Amino acid sequence: MIRENIQLHKQTLTRRISTRIRANGIVAVMGCEKPVVARINDIGTGGVSFLHVHDREIADSEIKMDILIFDVQSDDELLISHLEGQVKSKELVSDPDSKAPVWRFSVEFRDLDARHRQTLSTCLRQGLNGGLNSRYSLAKKVA
What we know:
By secondary structure, this protein is α+β, with helices and mostly antiparallel strands. Helices cover 16% and strands 45% of the residues. It contains two helices and eight strands; from the N terminus they run αβββββββαβ. A six-stranded antiparallel barrel has the order 2-3-4-7-6-5. A hairpin with a 5-residue loop joins strand 2 and strand 3 (36-44). The termini are far apart.
């Protein structure tokens, strides 16, 4: 019985195919009971991962979101609005700063138009070149 339960709860995980960078920023998730604001963990052209203290406020399926990325050293901001995505996983992790338990949501972007693809590519290019600094270093590349 226990073995069957474990088998039922296993998830099929796939590896990312897009490069991600760590970035300062927030994700505003819409379509929940109330709007949710979460802190970005990393972002790339294929998706975003973010940290939030509650796991039940965010749906496990399709979500709509706005993303604001900022660089505190240069006061640069980049707003990417009206994105749609699919939650691929959520995992209880330790917050990088406070070490408190938080949920990390990994979201794959869906149906990106040319403007969104261009904005995300620009963000990634600037991040890898040090244009959008992160709290860890000058835009550290994430595997």
